[in-house]
Amino acid sequence: GAVVSQHPSWVICKSGTSVKIECRSLDFQATTMFWYRQFPKQSLMLMATSNEGSKATYEQGVEKDKFLINHASLTLSTLTVTSAHPEDSSFYICSALGQFTGELFFGEGSRLTVL
Amino acid sequence: KQEVTQIPAALSVPEGENLVLNCSFTDSAIYNLQWFRQDPGKGLTSLLLIQSSQREQTSGRLNASLDKSSGRSTLYIAASQPGDSATYLCAVRANQAGTALIFGKGTTLSVSS
Predict the structure, then answer these.
(1) Which residues of A touch B37 (CB under 8 A)?
(2) What percentage of chain A exceeds 70 in pLDDT?
(3) How far is the CA of B46 from the CAs of A98, B53, B77, B91, B112, in angstroms?
C-alpha cells in the first residue's frame, strides 16, 4: 500500500523555539494533505487542509500564524510550530490524499514535547 | 458540521468474547467510513474501509457494517484476544472532493487473558 512518512517521529524542544515536521508521500503524489493533532486520551482533531501550491485552510480555533503549513510539492507538506509552548505538546499526524485513488493514507505521527 | 460519536468509550472483556463497537455520525452524506486501530503512543492502523455504497466489509475476525441512512456503523470483533487491546477509532469522510476524515473519540478496548 501507499506509504506516508513523517519526520521526526519525536522531538523535544525548549519553550519559544520553532519546530518543523515533515510529511512525505513516498510512492504517490498527493495534491492534498491534512494535519491532525491528538492530545493524550483524545481523538484526532483536524487542524488544517494543505493543498499543493496554495495556502492552507485552517479549522476554526487553529492559529495560522502559529502553525505554519507549506505544501511546496506534490510529495511534501511541512508543519512548523512557531514559538512553541508546553501547551503545544501533542501528537501530530498527517494524512495524504492519493491523487488518483482518492484514498487517504496516514503517517506514523510526530510526538512533540515542549519543555 | 459532521460529528462522530463512539459508544462505549471503554470496554473490558475476557478473552474469547465476541464484541461490538458502535459508531454514529450526524450527516449521512458521507463518501466512506473507516475503522482504525491505535496502540498507545502509536499512529493509526487502518482496519476496514467501507464505501458509501457498501453495507459491510470483513477482514479476518473483524466485520464492519454501515447503515448510511441511519448514520450508524458497527465493528464486530469475533473471539477477542489480548492482542486486540487498543483504541478503536471510527472516522467518516464527507461526500465532497478533497475532504478530510472526521474522527470519533474512540473506544478503548481491554481484553484480559
Answers:
(1) none
(2) 98
(3) 15, 19, 15, 10, 23
Residues on chain A touching B103 (C-beta within 8 angstroms) = 36, 43-45
- Which of A67, A94, A71, A69 is CA-nearest to residue A82? A67
d(CA B40, CA B80) in angstroms, rounded, equals: 19
A35 Cβ under 8 Å from any chain B Cβ: no
Q: Which residues lie below 8 Å from residue A55, measured CB to CB, with a gap of 6+? A: none
What backbone phi and psi angles, to 5 degrees, belong to B84?
A: -80, -10
Closest alpha carbon to B12 in B86, B105, B95: B86
Which three three-digit cell numbers place residue B26?
450526524
Rg (CA), chain B: 14
Nearest CB among A31, A44, A51 relative to B103 is that of A44
Summarised one tens digit per residue, pLDDT across range A37-91 is 999 888 899 999 998 888 899 999 999 999 999 998 889 999 999 999 999 999 9
Q: What percent of chain B has pLDDT over 90?
A: 88
Grid-cell match 493533532, residue found: A37
CA closest to B91 among chain A residues? A44
Whether the ω angle into residue A8 lies within 30 degrees of 0, i.e. cis, is yes
Pair B74, B22: CB distance under 8 Å: yes
> In this structure, are strands A90-97 and A19-25 parallel, antiparallel, or unpaired?
unpaired
